[in-house]
Amino acid sequence: MTIPSAVLRAEPTTQPSRRKGTATEPVSDTADAASPHLRLEDRVALLRFMLAHRAIEERGTSLYKQGKVPGSFYDGRGQEATCVGATFALASGDPVCPLIRDLGAHLVKGTSARAVLAHYLGRAGGVSAGREGNVHFGDASLGVVGMVSMLPDMMAVAVGMALAFKLRGEQRCALAFFGDGATSVGDWHEAMNLAAVQHVPAIFVLEHNGYAYSTPSELQFAVDPLQRAAAYGMPGVSVDGNDVEAVFEVVRQARERAITGGGPTLIAAHTMRMHGHGAHDDGRYVPPEQIEHWLGRDPIELQRSRLAALAVDVEALAVEVAAEVDEATVQALAMPHPDPGTATSGVYAVGEAVALGRGLAPWSGFR
Questions:
Q1: pTM surpassing 0.85?
Q2: Which 3 state secondary structure label does DSSP give 96?
Q3: Is 10 exposed, middle or buried (0-12, 13-18, 19+ CB in 10 A)?
Q4: Please, which pLDDT band fits residue 300 given cuts at 50, 70 and 90?
Q5: CA distances (Å), 165 to each of 94, 141, 278, in order?
Q6: Distance between CA atoms of 267 and 283, rounded to whole angstroms?
Q7: Angle in degrees, CA 163, 166, 171, rounded to 5
Q8: Which domains does the chain carry?
Q9: How many Å apart are CA 215 and CA 294, to the nearest integer?
Q10: SS3 of 315, please?
Q11: Which of 178, 181, 324, 349 is deepest in the core (most CB within 10 A)?
Q12: Bridge partners (DSSP) listed for residue 177
């Protein structure tokens, strides 16, 4: 990712380590950083990805209300820091399994705003060429695995990929996101258990937003999922899911542990879903005071404040991102719908299996 000089007004004072794609020496420009492994350009990039995440979903919501997006619409407002910070810590060859609120993971890996908006609109130029629902997508060429609605099935997929990396002797890991409600499903147990028994390089990120659709956590489980990590035989780490830099750091540590033979990690990122489950849900079951509390902990505003104190022109950055989303919207709307005659193409795999591609890895520690 290129950070325009208009929004980046300081140069890093130290250089990152180049050892095996990790940074072992502090490279932060300021003492207030939640991770000593982030240069100023990284911190600006984290904000940029979060701004893009929110702006694209706001545009998607608008298009949905205009009747231009088929089906319903789901967003991740309030949870941007978790998916952006976590994916930012992944190397190019580390695949990610995002869920419906993890648009930032797609963006960090290299999916363009134009491709995402075209996907929402069901256009031929979208990620799935107009064939998937608006939240079931992933660009395999970038190492992003498209999700399914049966949660947490993607955890099992991540364990399988991680096991393959272990068997091949590759220094790679796989990361899967999931929510509170997914921890009550048997697949969650199977994935956690197999990952720990086989000691695979996997990272499990619980987006602990307090609700499984409309069911609050206290009615979902008696023992918090993080406390179960020890019973499976893996570390459990809690983090402020609204602090993008803190999320990056715990995932960076989990990745280092994974690729050096330390096995899987469960991370609980405490955050809040600021909208209903989808556009069809007004979220009236959430107490107003709870929403008010989390409004004061907006992840984007936290990072904006940090960077503004470092003389970064955060307003210029926001304007630039908004302009990019405007342009991407025009381009996506101009794309044709897919040819109905091709509806059956791609239903079945033909020929040899194609390996997942490698996505972007924008963190400076990988350069």
A1: yes
A2: strand
A3: middle
A4: very high
A5: 10, 18, 35
A6: 26
A7: 125
A8: 32-337 (3.40.50.970)
A9: 18
A10: helix
A11: 178
A12: 205
